[in-house]
User: Fold (2Fe-2S)-binding protein from Sulfitobacter aestuariivivens.
Amino acid sequence: MTKFTLNGKSVDVDNPPDELLLLVIRDQIGLKGTKYGCGAAMCGACTVHVDGEAMFSCQLSVGDIEGAEITTIEGLSDDGTHPLQKAWVAEQVPQCGYCQSGQIMRAAALLSENPSPSREEIVDHMSANLCRCGTYNRIFKAVERAAREV
Assistant:
C-alpha cells in the first residue's frame, strides 16, 4: 500500500511499487489531464508536481512517491481560473493541446520558485517540455502574462 497526497486529498493505492505514477493517476484514479506522451522523459506531457517540483510522471513509480504531495493539472484550480490557465487562453497557446497540461505544470513550478522570471529564465526552464505544434512564443508570452498577474 502506497500513501500520498493527490491534489490535496489523501490517497492509498495498492499497486506494485514499480507501477508508473502516470498510469496510476490516469488509469486507476481517473484523472486524464496528465498525458502519456513518449514514456521516456523526453516530451514533458506527463509533468506533475512532486512536493512542488515539476517531474515526469512517466519516470516515477508509486514506490518513489510514498508520503509525497502530488499535484496534477486538475489540482491547479477547480474551475480553470489559475493565472496560468487564464493566460493560456488569453494568449491562444494551444493548437493540438496535447502538451498543454505538462507545459502549464512546468510553468507553475517556475512561477512558484521565481514569480518574476526573465524571458531567458522562462525559455530555459520550459525547455524540458516539447510542443510539437511549435507554439513556444505563445507559451513564453503566457508565462510572462501569468507572472504579471500573480
